[in-house]
Amino acid sequence: MLVDAGYCSNENLTEPGPDRLIATGKSRDLEAAASEQPADGPSPADADPIRARTHRLRTEEGITTYRKRSHIAETPFAHAKHNLGFRRFIGRGLDRATSEWSFHAAVHNIGKILTRLTGDPLPATG
Hints:
Layout lengths: L1 E2 L6 H5 L6 E2 L4 H10 L12 H10 L1 H24 L10 H25 L8
Parallel strand pairs: 1-2
């Protein structure tokens, strides 16, 4: 799992489960640390979970893996915003926003199905 810094906590880093690469800061800071102070091998044995993760993100394998997050996580939102013109919610409140986003996602997925079945891309609206 590739996760942004908003989820960085000792609890999230130590919970059992799948391997998680959680950022410990902004992407630009991670990139700078990986290029200016690269790390090799495992983190020090006495490192707390956040220091261990910071060390892992400074390794070539760690920063290369984390770079994939941007493309995976941000592309659907950029598509909705730029191609479909979905820039704000119409309803107010979390329930209405959740419903509106779910409807948008369903329409998007139906469009993908139709494109796959027909081979013709659907026109973008905006």
